[in-house]
Amino acid sequence: MSIEDLQQTPGFRRVRLMMKKYGQSTPEVPTEPTPQERVRMAAVLFEEVMESIWKGLGIELRVYQGVSGSLDAHGCLYHTMNGENTIEFVQTGKFNMVEAIDGALDTIVTARGIMVGCGVADVALEYEVDCNNLEKFGPGCYKDANGKHCKPPNHPKPDIEGLLKKQGWKG
């Protein structure tokens, strides 16, 4: 294990301190959170993402069963989840810069909190994912129906498992 595998960003260290003050678990090695911790993590992440979407971007989400994903004539985005449910993204409000940025930053803090709560340092993993995402813009890169840039079919996944094992995860 190298020191680079255990590095933490300043933001990660601030979130760890905050979580310790809240009395939340901050393991030093990769650890599976309890079911109660996982529910709390999911609920807080959802709340922060939705704050950014609703209050900041002015977008309402509607969930349907059996509708396929695409853009309609009015610019509404339909995104199919798990092959059954579809989420419609509809502009119903105005853009609010302060709320959008506040929600985005709170989402980053919450995502770091998940890493802290799992005992996983962020630097090496974030670098691996960032580099992997940048490499997808080669031959075979395409945009899907929702406008997302997708990796070529044979693009390798980031080695998250290998980096977690370097941090002591038993898998």
Briefly characterize the structure:
This protein is of the alpha+beta class and 171 residues long. The protein has five helices and six strands; from the N terminus they run H-H-E-E-E-E-H-H-E-E-H.
List the SSEs and their pairings.
Blueprint: H1 10-22, H2 35-56, E1 59-65, E2 70-71, E3 77-81, E4 85-91, H3 97-117, H4 123-135, E5 142-143, E6 149-150, H5 160-166
Antiparallel strand pairs: 1-4, 2-3, 3-4, 5-6
Helix pairs in contact: 1-3, 2-3
Average pLDDT value? 87
Backbone shape:
globular
Q: Which percent bin holds the helix content?
A: 40-55%
Distance between the termini: 16 Å
Largest sheet descriptor: 4 strands, antiparallel
Note the run of SSEs as H and E: HHEEEEHHEEH
Strand content: 5-15%
Number of helices: 5
What's the total number of strands?
A: 6
Uncertain residue segments? none
Structural class: alpha+beta
**Could you tell me the radius of gyration in angstroms?**
19 Å
- Cross-sheet strand order for the largest sheet: 1-4-3-2
What features would you describe in this structure?
The protein has five helices and six strands; from the N terminus they run ααββββααββα. The protein has helices at residues 10-22, 35-56, 97-117, 123-135, 160-166; strands at 59-65, 70-71, 77-81, 85-91, 142-143, 149-150. The protein has a four-stranded antiparallel sheet with strand order 1-4-3-2. It has a two-stranded antiparallel sheet with strand order 5-6. A hairpin with a 5-residue loop joins strand 5 (142-143) and strand 6 (149-150). Helix 1 crosses helix 3 (97-117). The longest helix is centred in the N-terminal third of the chain and has 22 residues, at 35-56. It is globular. It starts with 9 loop residues before the first helix and ends in a 5-residue tail after the last helix.
